[in-house]
Write a structure and sequence with these properties.
mainly alpha, extended, about 55% helix, single chain
């Protein structure tokens, strides 16, 4: 392996660690979003503040780190509402495309792995607390000057 191959592998591993997807998967997602954007905005108009790539970064960061929308918006120079709208649009577009799908519930239930149960006793139990008496209380001044 040459230095370039190692550097590319390291970058791919770092990218996956940061965004939760491999770079080639990111490019597939970006292509789907770009196609949808081109269909919706074929007449032109005001260019959006965030590029398709940044919109995907925002969505993946939100899903990966579950940071607040205010915090992510601050990083990209947009408001919370823009981040919320971006996340919803990106998710809906990727779901509508059906390239990326999770298995149905029935498939997950049919799994061949055995199920293990862990039982934890969470019932309340009484705790012996010291009783308050005159001797155990805070001592008051015994002599009061009048």
């Amino acid at each position: 392996m040459g230095k370039r191959e190692v550097a590319a592998d390291t970058k791919a591993v770092l990218f996956k660690r940061l965004y939760g997807v491999k770079p080639d998967m990111f490019e597939k997602m970006k292509a789907i979003l770009q196609k949808e954007f081109d269909i919706l905005h074929h007449r032109g108009g005001k260019p959006p503040k965030l590029t398709i790539e940044y919109k995907l970064y925002i969505t993946l960061k939100y899903l990966r780190e579950y940071r607040t929308m205010e915090s992510i918006g601050n990083d990209y120079g947009v408001g919370k509402s823009a981040v919320c709208e971006t996340i919803q649009r990106v998710e809906n577009t990727l779901i509508k495309d059906k390239t990326f799908r999770l298995p149905d519930k029935k498939v997950l239930k049919r799994g061949t792995s055995s199920v293990e149960y862990i039982v934890v006793d969470v019932t309340e139990s009484p705790i012996n607390r010291p009783q308050k008496t005159k001797k155990s209380g805070i001592p008051a001044r015994k002599s009061v000057i009048r």
